Amino acid sequence: MSVAAIIPAYNEGKTIGNVLKVLMAMKDLDEVIVVNDGSGDNTATVARNYNARVVDLPKNSGKSIAVLTGVKNTQAEIILMLDADLVGLKELHVRELLQPVYSGEAAMTIGIFKNGRGATDLAQRIAPFLSGQRALKRDVFDKLEKYSVKDYGLEIALTLMAERENIRVREVELRNLTHVMKEEKRGLLAGFLSRIKMYWDIIYCVIKFRLEVF
Ligand SMILES: O=c1ccn([C@@H]2O[C@H](COP(=O)(O)OP(=O)(O)O)[C@@H](O)[C@H]2O)c(=O)[nH]1
Ligand SMILES: O=C(O)[C@@H](COP(=O)(O)O)O[C@H]1O[C@H](CO)[C@@H](O)[C@H](O)[C@H]1O
After folding, report:
1. For 24, what's the count of Cα atoms within 13 Å in the CB-facing half-sphere?
2. Å from CA of 109 to ligand 2 middle
3. Where is the Glycosyltransferase 2-like domain (predicted)?
4. Considering the domain boundaries, does residue 205 fall inside one?
5. Which of 83, 100, 132, 172 is deepest in the core (most CB within 10 A)?
6. Is 10 in the pocket of ligand 1 (CB under 6 A)?
């Protein structure tokens, strides 16, 4: 089965190289697509220097649109979603995410940080369903079309849809992996505001699923 890695990226010039270095060396991946979500930094240049395929969004459109744009730009049968700010990514993590989907054991895997850093391990232990590291059969995204998803609502929507539609999900531990937290990346205030916005996107999505208003 063909696999495309999709990396949504908004101002990730400092970290995306470490993710692409691993992905571009992997034979298991047919395509590596970076969706540059209106970044104002050198994200796109770094990605092109690694020979990744870059899809440029003209303005910042939010994580959901970035990932869904990546999906529209490939015919691959399996989609690997990875964030551009991962620290410590190894080929093994990618294989661990893909294997249950390859084997048919699951239609979606969700990667959970373990022994990465205290704060990010804890966040993912409390809310594993938010993780952005996933592998999915393409038809999971086809099913998502009838649900409206926005910004940081993508992962919770995928998780709630999987419950609703009996899609098989498997969580996998990603050892020694972490990411750069919003406050570290954007500064305390802007990071915190972005976190509040993220929680709002998630709560809004949960309410829509509960009320069955899509
Ligand atoms: O408007 C946005 C916000 C985020 N992202 C990307 O989505 C991923 C996860 O976002 P972020 O790091 O803000 O979330 P966190 O991991 O801190 O929850 C990262 O690769 C971001 O660059 C994006 O493409 N567009
Ligand atoms: O793990 C989490 O609690 C959040 C927030 O991460 P940080 O607080 O910035 O480390 O990050 C995840 O959730 C987002 C919404 O589902 C995803 O878009 C991110 O990819 C994921 O890292």
Report:
1. 16
2. 16
3. 5-126
4. no
5. 172
6. yes
**What CATH number has the domain bearing residue 85?**
3.90.550.10
Residue 198 domain flag: no
- Structural domain including 39 reads 3-180
State the closest ligand 2 atom to the C-alpha of 119, by its place in the atom list counted from 1.
10
Q: Length of the chain in residues, anyone?
A: 214
What average pLDDT does the structure give for the chain? 97
Query: Is 103 a member of any domain?
Result: yes
With respect to residue 13, please indicate whether it lies within any of the assigned structural domains: yes
| ipTM summary value | 0.95
Q: What is the 161 CA–ligand 2 centroid distance (Å)?
A: 19
